[in-house]
Design goal:
This protein is an alpha/beta fold. The protein folds into 4 domains: 46 residues; 106 residues, Immunoglobulins (Immunoglobulin-like), CATH 2.60.40.10; 41 residues, no CATH class; 206 residues, 3-Layer(aba) Sandwich (Rossmann fold). The chain is built from 11 helices and 19 strands. Strands 16-15-14-17-18-19 form a 6-stranded mixed sheet, with helices on both faces. Strands 5-4-8-9 form a 4-stranded antiparallel sheet. Helix 7 runs parallel beside helix 8. The longest helix has 24 residues. It starts with a helix and ends in a 14-residue tail after the last helix.
Length: 448
């Protein structure tokens, strides 16, 4: 615009001089400059018209530690070539660099590019809007056009295999079988009914089909295996971020593209560790065909009732993807508020970074009612030395029969959740006791 303003002032001065002197050369310059301004304006204005952009997202759901892939196709629908186009993207996905400057787009032709973004932060992110900018060959004018279309991408938390995690899981005793119908195939047949569209063929009861001449399918009841409730602690008081968390966010997308294994995969904060542990536990139990429920008290209260299968895992991950440590209630209050969901024989897995022992008493009260409890403690002192340590909580849990797992920053979850802390210590002592005693160091005379 500065160039066009200078040219406009020059045109005005030359026009005044041409009128006063009447020289043909000055009038020719006026005509030339006027034509240049008009043609440049029309060229720049038409460049942002006749452009169609197609944005193709490979998947609307991805996961921390994986790539989000997008493909952009820019098509010139006009009859004139586009010398240059600036496509600017305003997506919210961290590290998503989809903006491009394209040159020489022929008429009735298309050009495109791929964008692969390493996802290091969970959440729900907006993709788009976009803005197209172009101008004339002389750089006198620039025009922009906004494309308001947007889409949504959900980044699930990371999940890790924890094959050795085996807490005491509850079994409902005789007389306590759950008399609820389920769409899963279980060993408990409740009855038969007529076939409905969508029923699986392996549920057809052939003796009833032969007797009635109609398609009859079996109905099942829930397996009398006790439910598992996962309760992540999202109280705002438990949030601890490492001092280098901001630096980790800034450098991770670029550095991990070169060598991801040299850096932490989980953001160094207690919130991310709690969410990652909860997601890993949910997949661990659901892969073993257990009914898993989820209770969250973060920015809002969320209760997912126990269910099985991949559909339940998707529900759990979608809730954990947007969960934040903004809860107003501590873990002890959450367990008291949701007390009605914890029936006798079920298992409650509490995942927390709280250094306060009040929630230990809440788990102890549940245990007295016949509810099996498990504690996964994320040590806040491992993220920053100024944070309170979890030693007092671990000592309090050691006096109870609650299986306890301890997770520190940088731990491999498969190892940290392999066995409870008490068993780990006792196993280590047993290995020391069973180790053969070799000869002691001695001097030349055989004495120390």
């Amino acid at each position: 615009m500065r160039r066009s303003l200078v040219l406009l002032i020059l045109l005005t001065l030359i026009s005044m001089a041409a009128v006063q002197t009447g020289r043909p050369l000055l009038f020719n310059l006026v005509y030339l400059l006027s034509a240049t301004l008009v043609l440049s304006f029309l060229w720049a204005w038409s460049n942002v018209r006749g452009i169609a952009i197609r944005r193709v997202t490979e998947s609307r759901r991805t996961q921390v530690g994986r790539l989000a892939e997008e493909r952009f196709i820019v098509r010139n629908t006009g009859w004139w070539p586009k010398l240059w186009l600036e496509v600017r993207d305003f997506s919210e996905l961290p590290g998503h660099r989809a903006s491009r400057v394209m040159t020489s787009v022929p008429p009735k032709r298309a050009r495109g590019w791929f964008v692969k973004t390493y996802c290091f932060k969970r959440g729900r992110f907006r993709l788009g809007p976009m803005r197209i900018t172009s101008g004339d060959p002389f750089g006198l004018f620039r025009f922009s056009r906004d494309l308001p279309q947007t889409s949504e991408l959900i980044v699930y938390p990371a999940m890790y295999d924890i094959p050795a995690f085996a807490p005491p899981l509850g079994q409902l005793v005789g007389g306590e079988a759950l008399r609820r119908r389920t769409h899963h195939v279980t060993p408990n047949v409740a009855g038969v009914r007529e076939y409905q569209p969508g029923d699986s063929f392996n549920r057809i009861h052939w003796p009833s089909v032969a007797r009635t001449g109609r398609l009859i399918v079996k109905e099942f009841e829930e397996d009398p295996t006790a439910n598992i409730w996962i309760v992540p602690d999202l109280h705002y008081d438990t949030l601890v971020r490492a001092p280098d968390a901001d630096e980790w966010e800034e450098t991770l997308p670029v550095v991990l593209w070169l060598d991801r294994k040299q850096h932490e995969e989980i953001m160094p904060s207690t919130e991310e560790y709690v969410i990652t542990v909860a997601a890993s536990l949910a997949r661990h139990f659901l892969d073993r065909n257990r009914a898993v429920g989820l209770i969250l008290h973060g920015a809002r209260r969320t209760v997912l009732y126990p269910d099985r299968g991949s559909r339940q895992l998707t529900k759990v991950l979608e809730e954990l993807a947007v969960a934040t440590a903004q809860g107003r209630f501590g873990l002890d209050h959450v367990l008291a508020l949701e007390d009605l969901h914890f029936t006798r024989g079920t298992t409650v897995v509490a995942v927390t970074a709280s250094p306060y022992i009040s929630w230990v008493e809440a788990l102890r009260l549940l245990q007295r009612r016949g509810v099996r409890t498990v504690a996964v403690v994320v040590d806040p002192a491992s993220f920053t030395p100024t944070a309170p340590s979890a030693d007092q909580v671990m000592a309090e849990l050691a006096t109870t029969a609650i299986p306890t797992y301890r997770v520190r920053r940088g731990d491999v979850l498969a190892e940290a959740l392999a066995s409870p802390v008490g068993e780990r210590i006792s196993d280590g002592r047993q290995q020391i006791a069973d180790a053969p005693i070799g000869p002691r160091e001695s001097g030349s005379d055989g004495h120390l």
